[in-house]
Amino acid sequence: MKKKSSKKGWLNYLIYLIWALLLFAGIYDLFHIPGRAIFWFGELIIAMFIYYKLKVPVGIYFGILILFLINLFGELFIGLFYIIPQFDKIIHILSPLIGCTLFYFLFEKKIKNKKMLILFSVILLISWGALWEIVEYFSDKYFHTLLVGVHLAGIENFKPIQIMEPLEDTIYDMFYSLIGTVVWAIIALFVTKNKNKHSRVKTKKH
Question: Domain extents for the chain?
């Protein structure tokens, strides 16, 4: 019991530390790029809501936090988005694996047909991806962020240099998200098919 409680305690401390980083990033950006601060505060609110209200499995929750951290270090602390040209495309491939798994878990008890549940999770993820691209566009337009298009850190005047047009970047983002979603769907179908086989074998034995 003590090992379990101590393990849970360390996990909670780690979660609180990540929350603190998001809070720090939001406060920092209020004085630098206020529009971007909205995203850090938004991620913090989402992280806390999922933790306290949805109570998802630890693996899924830490997957979400890892995505938030990649975004945080990629945009603010290290600036990997402005060093590695295709860094954001990695996130667009990985995020559907976490997002679809989250949707699958949330609606698992309501949708009994596993194939329909997988399809529903895929549709939700694609819809979310499209909505996110719209959010990025309006954020750049009204809050002067650099979410649409691919930019690299420039030497002259320390200004980012655009190496991919916004429209092209959006198309590639959605394409890579689609790849991640398809990969998740294939894995999910394979796993559910194997589970059904095992359950049938067990029922036959009994």
Answer: 1-78, 86-206
